[in-house]
Amino acid sequence: MTPLAPPRSDLADTVLERLTAGYAAAADPVRAAEAAAYMKNIAPFLGIRTPDRRALSRTVLQGTPRPDEADCTAVALRCWELPEREYHYFAADYLRRYAGRCSSGFLPVVRHLLTTVSWWDTVDTLAAHVVGPLVAADPELVPVMDEWIEDDNLWIARTALLHQLRYKDATDTERLFRFCLRQCGHTDFFIRKAIGWSLREYAKTDPDAVRAFVDGARDRLAPLSVREALKNL
Q: CA torsion angle for 15, 20, 21, 26 (degrees, to 10)?
């Protein structure tokens, strides 16, 4: 994959300067080793507890203006270039906050993030809180999700399954169920879990529809997917 080059952004310069200084000062090597082991060593960690990291992030962003799409791109890509996972968390949270500032043209940037240092901790935030809003804002991106559910990269397929997670009444039920059936034979835990999670979340809106779908597809869905889907029913 060809690396994406961050665009020029004065805002990103300010944010990254504050971010790297603040996060580095709060690093805890012992906690970092524990966090890396817990997350299967997908990336090194600084060892900053989540509440402390979020407090530091608020300090970093204090007084900064709202970003435009180029700023979001620059902040995200530059954070992703840094090895420690907390910087990736900062970027994912930043995009979650400012997804509405980005157009459909931002989706390739998100795909890069999804497929670089990929693990559930960043993928799920980006899927539900960045990709989801982008697709909701531009119907022309809906067919892209139809492509993503077919993708050989399990994190892209997981994103397609989860992008409607916060849609509630606006959920395209036909597409949700079709996506679940498309990947129901996948052997990976993260796909089977995502199928169940997406159904369980929609069951909060329409439990009867989910129950009927699971009853009709029980012989095709993995037991894990069924358990997750019906957990609250």
A: 120
